[in-house]
Amino acid sequence: MPRLVISLVQSINGSFAQDGWSTGVSTDTDFRNFIALRRRASALIIDRRTALNPQLPVINAPGKALEHTPVHVLTESDPAPLARQLAEIGVDYRAQQFTPGTIAEVVASLATRADTPAGEELIVCESGPNLAFRLLEHHPGAELLLSISPRYIHTEGSHFSRLPAQIDLRLIDVRDEDDQVFLRYRRA
Asked: What is the pTM of this model?
């Protein structure tokens, strides 16, 4: 079974997105690590929202570093309409249906790059927290690579105060105990 790594970034106050996308939460360091992980991928998993966003570049466009990397869009709904939408916008993404009970089999059956040696397949999931949760809950051995951005981001619907705020912080200490990570920050 291929190794599955789910890459997520969040702000220190729990935001996975700013203005609807993770790019506002990410930092240059997070992005460099994400790109390095993506380049090692034998295949990528994204969600429907990411696949259909016209503002995002095509991940495996001809001439790009990931040109030969299969991109799979996992959906719990009928994949046929999604496949048609993907074809209409001209992306080489493959729609795959899953249910919580079949997600491990679906991931195991995903096509990977032809140049990946057997047993070394790495599938990277670039979705948001909803698909990430499904994969963690139902795929044995799924790994979560969680990047905590040193940003305190307030957006509409934030569970913190209504004050508009974005505060950059600097990490000053890391400690772990019993699988809990304690991060200490100071204003940058």
From this structure: 0.83
